[in-house]
C-alpha cells in the first residue's frame, strides 16, 4: 500500500510548486546583463527563448538549473521520508511552478526541463527513449516545440508501459508503483497544455525555427529605414537649393564689370 499521509503530500505540493517556480531564465539573464527573455520571441523563460536572448551557452546553464530544481525537490521529498505519491506530486508541481511561476506574475517556461529533472530521479530509464526522439526531431525539423511535444509524449508512453509491466520479474522492469501512471499521463498533459500556443502556430505554419529570425523580427527594421528616407530626401533638396543660389564666378565677374564700364565711360 502507498503512504497517503497528508503531511508529505502537502509538503510535496507546496515545495514542488515553489522550487519549480524559481525563474532561472530570468535570474541568469539579469546576472549577465542580458535581455529579459520575456520581451522577445515567445516571451517564455525556458531554454529555447533564453537562447534567443543571451545565446546557447547561457541558455544551457539556465536549462540545466531548471532540470536540477525538479530533481532537487524530488530528492528532498525522499529525504524527508515521502513515498511514491508525494514524490510524483512534487515532480508534477515542479512543472506547474516552472510554467506558472509565482515569482514573475504566473508566467514561465513550457515545463520540458523540469519534466526531465523529475524523470531523472523517478524513472531515469525513460530518458533513453526521450532524448533520441527529442534530439532527432529538432535536427530534422529545426523546431524546438516539436521536439518537446514528441519527446514528452514518448516519455509518457514509456512510463506507462514500464509501470504496466511492474508485476514482471526485475530483469524486465523497474517495479514502479501504480502512482507512476499519473506521472506518465500528467507530464505529457502539462507540457502539451503549456504548448497550446505553439501547437496553434504549428497548425498555421507559423512556428519559429531554430536559427531563423521570426517574420516580425526580420521586418522590424523596415519602418526605421523608411522613416529615414524623407529626411535624406529633404537634405538632398536643401543641398540642391543651396547650390542653385550660390553665385558663380561668371556672375560675380559680370556684376563687377558693370560699374567698371560706367567709370570708363565717365573718364572718356
Task: Compile the SSE list and pairings.
Layout: H1 6-20, H2 24-31, H3 47-54, H4 56-79, H5 84-99, H6 112-122, H7 127-141, H8 144-164, H9 180-193, H10 196-204, H11 215-218, H12 221-245, H13 249-267
Helix pairs in contact: 1-4, 1-5, 2-4, 3-4, 4-5, 4-6, 5-6, 5-9, 7-8, 8-9
The total of beta strands comes to 0
SSE order, one letter for each helix or strand: HHHHHHHHHHHHH
Shape: globular
Specify the structural class: mainly alpha
- What's the average pLDDT? 81
Q: Please state roughly what percent of the residues sit in beta strands, choosing from under 5%, 5-15%, 15-25%, 25-35%, 35-45% or over 45%.
A: under 5%
How many helices? The count is 13
Query: What is the number of domains?
Result: 2
**First CA to last CA: what distance?**
136 Å
Q: Which spans have pLDDT < 50 for at least 5 consecutive residues?
A: 214-236, 238-268
The main β sheet shows up as: none
Q: Please bin the fraction of helical residues.
A: over 70%
Cα-atom Rg, whole angstroms?
Answer: 33 Å
